[in-house]
Amino acid sequence: MKTHLSTLTLCLTLSGCGTLKDTSPALELTYIHDCHPLGGSGLQVAVEQANHALAQSRCRDQFEPYWSSLLDEGERQPDVSNKAKLAAFLSNQRETGVVSRDQARELYSRYFDIRFFSLPDIHNTCSYGERGDAISAELAEELRQKRRGLLKIADEKSAYEETLDLYGNVKQILLATRTACEAG
Amino acid sequence: MKRLSIIVLLGTFAIDAATAQPPPTLQLLPLSVNENIASTNRAAKAIEGNLKKIIGRLDSQFATFRTVQCDSLTRDEGCQQLTDAMASTYDELLGELEKTLPELRQPLLELRDELQTRIRYELGLKRTPRELQKLLLTEGVSSQALIQRRQSNRRSLTDGVRTLASLLPRLATGATGTLSASEFYLDAVEAVRAIELVEGKIPYARAQLSLAKAWGGVDDAVIEGVRGFTDLYFGGENDELRPDRPLELAEREIPDPAISELTNW
Prior knowledge:
The structure holds two protein chains of two kinds. By secondary structure, chain A is an all-alpha fold. Chain A has helices at residues 2-13, 43-54, 63-76, 81-95, 101-112, 132-153, 157-183. In chain A, α4 packs antiparallel against α5. In chain B, α1 packs parallel to α6 and α3 runs antiparallel to α7. Chain B starts with a helix and ends with a helix. In chain B, 77% of the residues lie in helices and 0% in strands. Chain B has helices at residues 2-20, 31-67, 77-125, 129-139, 143-153, 157-172, 177-215, 218-234, 257-262. At the A-B interface, α4, α5 and α7 of A face α3, α4, α5, α7 and α9 of B.
């Protein structure tokens, strides 16, 4: 059911989808546009397929659906090696110019780095004021992504616990700082 | 107020830690703050001792009241004497709070303001949110220690003392300045609010007691009032913030070059 739903969601976001010839969970195929289908053969194969597909001009704008499908594929067989496979995919896409270096870093970090990429790094902390709520919401969203990446895809419970601790500590520092900024 | 007790206890340990350990990366808890905490500690201990004595007497009076099956509507002489005694002890409790809370509030206000200034300048004005994260990671705070400490804030004073006795030496072994300071600061903010809350409740509690003396129901007024104050001061139920986790974290693997490149920010 989950597979069907994600496939449907994926199709709705695209200009066109391949016909869903077989939606049985056993096959778990995800058709992206009229580009190469992913899934069913493990993450390494899916990464190669995605690299191949994105190298073709007609599929070049389909990076996000492919990334999403690769995460789904990683989730089917959780393993620490999935991190390296997905990192290699992102590096490849950066080298071929499909994504920028910053985009690749952000995508990888949001899912697999224990640190929080979404924390702003431009202005001082006081200057965010009431936008602190938005920072908290973004942090929570990134924690969900890390839960998926570290726990469900990479099967790294200890790393996820580490990021969970960091999340709590960052939130506390931000709360104390915001309280002090607003009082001052 | 319950957190206040924890703060002042932490203060005692923090002073020892400050003299025994090298200074943390970012010094947000200077000696003046420690002196302030020590002063708050002395005031809180004195208050706590007096309050416990009075509350102990109230407990005993109330137990007798129940044992002899008095209630608020009973008008016999024995029950009336017990009711008067409870009202008088409760009045004494309110008087004690009225007298001593200002002594406690002043050093706490100074502590709060001192930390507020430092946190605002060092963390709020000098650093971005991501730099705060980096600072935390640089200081390498023991996450387990902090989890225990957060939980201890939700416990009674007795539980808190037990946890802190084993926790603080470990906290003191690392450069825990930033996170400790933020916890102290938030505790101080909350403690000042709690004191103001208690002070605000005292006139209402007195009014309730006067009404109860005139119309009956002293026992209910006393029970309700004492419960409110003791929950605030000595702590309520232990509210677990998160499940326990193993103390030791698994060692991080050495990342491959693609990962290193992607995490270089």
